[in-house]
Design brief:
Length: about 290
Amino acid sequence: MNTKENILITGATGNVGSELIKFLKGKNVNTIAGVKDPEKKSDGIDLISYRLLDFEKPETFRSALSDIDKVFLIRPPHISNVKEFIFPFIDAASDSSVKEIVFLSLMGVENNKLTPHYKIEKYIKDKKIPYTFLRPSFFMQNLSTTHKDEIRNQSEIFVPAGKGKTSFIDVRDIAEIGMLALIQDGHINKAYELSGKEALNYYEVAEILSAVLNKKVIYADPNVFSFFFRMKKNRLPIKFILIMIALYTVCKLGLAGKVTFETKKLLGRDPITFRKFAEDYRNVWT
């Protein structure tokens, strides 16, 4: 008898999680979203069920993980203290029936011990839970979410990344690989560095957006202080702004431009290009 596996998706309403759910639809699995408010379902996400899961409330872990076979784990962006809020969830997963964690990590994390992602990867290994680590480059969708308004309203990209190149990846590619890691054999205890097929600096990104949107989009290239105060004015949490500054500094130093071939190898096709992403999301900025 072929029993469907129960897969818990954390971050189900976010960029990667919502796309992952679409890829899992129609597969021979039970997809379950762990969310803070099960009554507040997101539009367009067709799920079998929702469960209460709040990383800041450990009392929600046991019921959220009940009868779960696999977990797709995404660290909530506002949580930096992973020892206090994420480790106990991993402990609970280890103590339950979970037989694999697919964790959305970060490219280059193995060389950056200060990142929350490094600490989470190490803890999953220490607990001896079978894992798959997805280590993507910068999301293209950062420009259609976090930086959407500045592109739409001011026709500018306002990030402190200098002339550094970034090997942007579309979250739809990450989600499809996440689906494969969850339902296919052969991915246990592996880490995949995922990028798009090209590295672009933000001047080149602005040129592509200008062509697609049929209006002039400029790259402002602010310093970190201007960026901090603009984001603070936009009411982003200070910890989140500081994480953004750290990541864009990595870009500025030329350390985010690595192009890998694992995305193509896993998907059996070329990654989605930035131009294709811009065309698909055009309405977000118009």
